[in-house]
Amino acid sequence: MAQTLQLDDLPDLARGAAVLGTGGGGDPYIGLRLVSAELERGRTITMLDPDEVDDDALVVASAFMGAPTVVIEKIPGGDEPVLALRRLEAHLGRAADAIIPMECGGLNSMVPLLVAARTGLPIVDGDGMGRALPELQMETFGVYGVSGSPIAICNERGHVAVIDTGPDNESMEWYARGVTVRMGGVSYIAEYPMTGAQVKETAIPRTMTLALQLGRVIRQAREQHRDPFQALVDCLADTLYGHGCTLMEGKVVDVERRSADGFVRGTARIAAYDGSRTVELTFQNEHLMARDGDQLLAIVPDLITVLDAESAAPITTESLRYGQRVRVFAISTPPIMRTPAALAVFGPRAFGLDEDWIPLEKLAAG
Fold first, then answer.
1. Distance from C-alpha of 193 to C-alpha of 89, rounded to nearest angstrom
2. Measured distance CA(53)–CA(124) in Å, rounded
3. Which residue in 6, 56, 63, 209 is deepest, having the highest Cβ count within 10 Å?
4. pLDDT tens-digit map of 185-216
5. Does a structural domain hold residue 213?
6. Could you read off the pLDDT of 115-132 as tens digits, one per residue?
């Protein structure tokens, strides 16, 4: 059923989206402020269930692209993703009927909300990643047959490029990444134009609602002096994701990160308080793998996120710092992300990791 997002919903949604962002997708705070300002001006955001979208409707994915650390340095004004949408509409010769998030994590949960608020278009409650992932072809839209291009790419100066690689989504990513790097490391995009029927077939449904629920249960658990981590586990059990668990609790003892080729890459090491074990996280914008020595704890496409040890507040990869007390928390992915076709696009081997995917629940069971 369609719902109207309220101003009070946004902090919970941003918090939950940062959990699903697996350390990447950009810090949602900047987007939260931009979207809040639109609602404070009296604009509204209508969120449609995927089943409510007309089969012949034109739905466009909206997002930012690039290194999350650069967004902190180049704060968007808010016009950029709307301009990308308008340029894509002009190229297609047709106006969009709805917006859908490219991913449900971090800042990229907020960018499509900003577009929806500024244009009056509804936003579809779903996305193409079920988390955050670093490359544009890594979307269930593309896995199940939707072409990512034509894609419109815009920067803060209003410069716009349109790239059309037909059904070749990997080439679309390659060209778009190059344009984004030359735009200063971050851009705003409109991509994967699709029909409402294709949304129903390829999107991960109701992930915006899930982000709202996760953010809400964390907040409510803290207010009621309950364990927010157990609240997350309980909430996930009744969703498509199904399984969540704490991998370890400890202190950040080392972080190595670098920005290159439009990504933030690096590792983080979390040591148990008693020094008995150390978990190493590998990330490319988002956390990809967690290991305890030779033991694999979790691996992409399952979600790995770092949360404050007391409040369960999500910590993005660009915000990880020495001395932080954290919990490493993992979440299993929905079935649509576990097929051979999906794993070929965003499984471990797609990132150059010398590992096969093992489901989180199997790893957790020992």
1. 9
2. 8
3. 63
4. 899 999 999 999 999 999 999 999 999 999 99
5. no
6. 999 999 999 999 999 999
Task: Match 């490029």 to its residue by tokens.
Answer: 161
For the domain that residue 103 is a member of, what is the CATH number? 3.40.1610.10
- Whether 48 and 122 have beta carbons less than 8 Å apart is answered as yes
Same domain, 123 and 167: yes
Asked whether residue 198 falls in the same domain as residue 325, the answer is no
CA distance 233 to 329: 10
How many Cα atoms within 13 Å fall on the side-chain side of residue 202?
Answer: 29
Q: 3-state DSSP call for residue 79?
A: coil
Phi and psi, residue 188, nearest 5°: -130, 135
Whether residue 240 sits in one domain with residue 183:
no
Q: Say whether pLDDT at 139 is over 80.
A: yes
Given a cut of 80, whether residue 334 has pLDDT beyond it is yes
**191 and 255: one domain?**
no
Q: Are 66 and 187 in contact (CB under 8 A)?
A: yes
Q: How many CA atoms lie within 13 A of 212 on its CB side?
A: 16
pLDDT tens profile 241-288: 999 999 999 999 999 988 776 677 899 999 999 989 999 999 998 999
Assessment of whether the complete model's pTM goes beyond 0.85: yes
Question: Would you say 344 and 262 are in contact if contact means Cβ atoms under 8 Å apart?
Answer: no
Q: What are phi and psi of 248, to 5 degrees?
A: -170, 165
Residues 140 and 251 placed together within one structural domain of the fold: no
List the structure tokens of 61. 């994915």
Phi/psi at 9 (5° precision): -75, -25
Sign of CA dihedral 201, 301, 134, 79: positive
Q: Are 360 and 285 within one domain?
A: yes
Angle at alpha carbon of residue 45, lines to 41 and 50, rounded to 5°: 175
67: amino acid identity, one letter: A
**pLDDT for res 363:** 95
Burial environment of residue 53 by CB neighbours within 10 A (0 to 12, 13 to 18, 19 or more):
buried
Residue matched to tokens 């950029």: 80
Cα separation, 14 vs 123, whole angstroms: 16
Domains in the chain, number: 2
Query: What is the predicted pLDDT for the residue at 262?
Result: 67
